[in-house]
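Sample A.
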Amino acid sequence: MKAFFEGIQWLFENIFFALHNFLKELELTHWFAANTINWIFMIICAVAMVYWIKQLKLHEEEGQEKQDTTAHSFLGK
């Protein structure tokens, strides 16, 4: 039974966390390179937020936005 759990330990430490361990070591020498994936996600989120706000403005200008309380059934009660 001990070998089974040691096998699970080996799997997680050497296979599943290999990228995490690589980034942990990389951060000590190249901070920007280690955080590249974070920068990519922040850029994607910023672009998505700008797109979302532009779409909200476009729908509001066209009058397609429902502003009354009956737009949602749970608000009208």
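Sample B.
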Amino acid sequence: MHPIFLHYPIQVPTKQVSDQPYLTFADQAYYYFIIPTSITERFALELYTIATHYHQQGWTNVTCPIPNVHNQFLTSIGKEKYLLCYAIYTDNHREEAAKLSGFHQIGFDYPYQPSTMNSYGKWNELWTSKIDQYEALYKQLYQQRPASPFIRGFVNMFPYIIGLAENAIQYMHIVEQESQFNESDQPSITFGRYHHDMNDVFIWSNQFVYDHPVRDIAEKLRQYMLTPDGLSSQGCQQFLQGYVSNMPISIFGWKLLYARLIFPIHLLDFMDQIRETSNHYSDMEELIENQSVYEENLRTFFYQIGIDEREINSIQLDWLLDV
């Protein structure tokens, strides 16, 4: 038995079924997940109310925090803090796009506005803050001697990353002037970095962010934009058509999505993952090669997804047009 169960008023599950991505136990239809965390009690309470909302709508595979015997969601064991969450497996054979649009629509009906995970309308300030942090890292690494191949690669690439980020922030100022909205432009429950979360057996509530739905669409498309077939691939086209047929994206939404794709989140995430190591230089070289493909997909973005740029009054980036 794991010691965390001593702190909860539940029947103790004895069958461990997995240790990835979190230590998982099962008891009949219920699955329990022991999730290391650094969030606050307030954040955990908001996750609980959101997960409960989804459970009430039939999405019982969303992981829901459980209060312990002290009526708190965070439990300390040694020096670590944990969330204990539960979920019930449900068999959902719908396509990913249909599931994601349905997930967003249920998020529209969530009756509260979270305070600890709210990124809606805050991309500019969040991006500016993120770049400030990386500029501090850049100055530190620039002075470092001796420098590993990775550090040299990061230092050389950083001005390019900053340029992209500044372009995205400038583009956001244009997007904010757009006045053509629809119902899909209200905030919903989204993911920090959407990949294929709707295809996972369980939906991890500790990844939730309160934001515009196109946050998830952009991160899904970002994966395609790093490949030569890009947005023209059958998988990408099917995903977009499946999503938009259930929940149309407004002119404002398309521009917001494009702004997010300009911001080099994938490059910054890569730096986050490996900046503590020095043996990923070959990965950086591949990333740089893929970025040229990414730029081409940015340049032809609206054409590839079948949107007439004149109809939505799209503003293209001058340096992309010169590629």
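B remarks: Residues 149-175 form the longest helix (27 residues). The radius of gyration is 21 Å.
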